[in-house]
Amino acid sequence: MTEPLYPLRIAAAPISWGVCEVPGWGHVLDARTVLSEMAALGLSATELGPPGYLPRDPDELRSLLETFGIAAVGGFLAQVLHAEPEQAIAAAKETAVLFAATGADVLVLAAATGLGGYDARPQLSESEWRTLVDTAAAIRDVAAECGLRTVLHPHVGTHVETEPEVERFLADSDLDICLDTGHLLIGGTDPVQLAQRHAGRIGHIHLKDVRSAVADEVRSGTVEYSEAVRRGLYAPLGEGDVDIAALVSSMHAAGYRGWYVMEQDTALQPTDSAELPSRDTERSLRHLAGLVAARI
């Protein structure tokens, strides 16, 4: 008999409400509005969003989260890993100290290009790739001193994006990865197959659903990533072309009991409210609840 799929550890992320670290990405809702929307949907855990979006003072941050009954899971940190590693390590240490003070347990690291945004990326030399791998390992050690795990996030517009790059990182590094269903698919990797090949290396999961036709345009270079997001690249879970059910079932069967962070990247216009992203998040939650119910 297949083991039942018990309730999942589900968390939110501010990017689902348009809160992004990229300058000019879109209208940024204030933190209290976003946390209030999360709480209204019954969510009780979140990643912390871009550096500086939530308070940098640990006491103030804990107080704000407690106001809405939300716990900190950890958060995303995009750093240039292939050059000037001391800067990346220092930034990661500062972030890890803050995350640890909130009770979070994971640092989600991405290999930024240094260009700003995710619409273009240069190729790395062999020595730059080695520096990237070594810097990621050093950040892993710094974060571990604070009691945090570090996972490397394959991400569109970073130096670990395509399937060969993901496989090379897994071969060259002992860091686990954040399996982001959306970014992997856009980068040309089937997230379900990757999860099956490397189940023991999945340390964290970001759940996205993707409209493949738009993803194809990003992959071919026809449309920039930021524009694709504005054109509806991401759909509520169960309404796109990622096999969310197979992914969750496969990871559960492999023994994964970590977080499933709902991350449906969106970009808001100045006149937009929280209504649409909250409605999409609610639809995603209903889809996940249906997956659980179907297997109990």
UniProtKB/TrEMBL annotation:
Transmembrane segments: none annotated. It comes from the Bacteria. Residues 37-268 form the Xylose isomerase-like TIM barrel domain. Pfam families: AP_endonuc_2. SUPFAM superfamilies: Xylose isomerase-like (SSF51658). PANTHER family: HYDROXYPYRUVATE ISOMERASE, INOSOSE DEHYDRATASE. This is TIM barrel protein. It comes from Nocardia suismassiliense.
